[in-house]
Write a structure and sequence with these properties.
A 4-stranded antiparallel β-sheet has the order 1-2-3-4. A 3-stranded antiparallel β-sheet has the order 5-6-7. By secondary structure, the chain is α+β, with helices and mostly antiparallel strands. The N and C termini lie far apart (83 Å). The relative contact order is 0.07.
Length: 179
């Protein structure tokens, strides 16, 4: 019964090219989109995360499992800004970073783990060219007018380093001592 229905459907589609166009151009992509959306909805409900963020929730869970003793074995280093927002961090033995953030109106802080892999490797597809330029010893002055973010950072000893950052990917294009 089902086989004969499929056979009739295939005959109908082959005799009517416009029907094949409708099926392959709209119906099949619609079914794929519906399945993808249903899958994301299921995972968002399972992780109690916002729509489209279930993969981040799964990544956080995996990082917590990997760094289960990080908070127990280490102490946070805290910084508070002028608005009494308190941010703390711990570098876990795995190299991952545990961040604690607390707004003044909140009783408890929020925690997030950031994978060392996400910090240490460039995210961009064109990151190889950025890395090769930075490692080639290019003069930083050449990057002033190329949409790079220039940030200066001071060490506790007062030494200043100027970083030229690609703001899209967070990668350092080059660095130099401040003048």
């Amino acid at each position: 019964m089902v086989a004969s229905m499929i056979k009739k459907f295939i005959e109908l589609v082959t005799k009517n090219p416009w029907l094949a166009t409708i099926i392959t151009g709209t119906i099949i992509p619609g079914i794929i989109a519906a399945l993808t959306a249903t899958n994301e909805m299921y995972h968002a409900v399972q992780t109690k995360s916002d729509w489209g963020k279930s993969s981040q929730a799964y990544e956080q869970k995996a990082l917590w499992i990997k760094n289960i003793t990080c908070m127990k074995d280490n102490e946070f280093t805290y910084i508070t800004n002028d608005h009494n927002v308190e941010v703390g961090s711990i570098v876990c033995p795995t190299g991952d970073v545990l961040i604690s953030a607390k707004r003044p109106e909140n009783k408890n802080p929020s925690f997030k783990l950031v994978s060392l892999d996400n910090i240490s490797k460039p995210i961009a597809f064109n990151s190889f060219s950025i890395i090769s330029e930075a490692q080639a010893g290019e003069e930083c002055q050449a990057f002033n007018n190329e949409n790079y973010l220039i940030q200066e950072s001071y060490s506790k000893s007062g030494y200043c380093t100027r970083y030229y950052l690609d703001p899209h990917y967070g990668s350092v294009v080059c660095s130099e001592p401040c003048e």
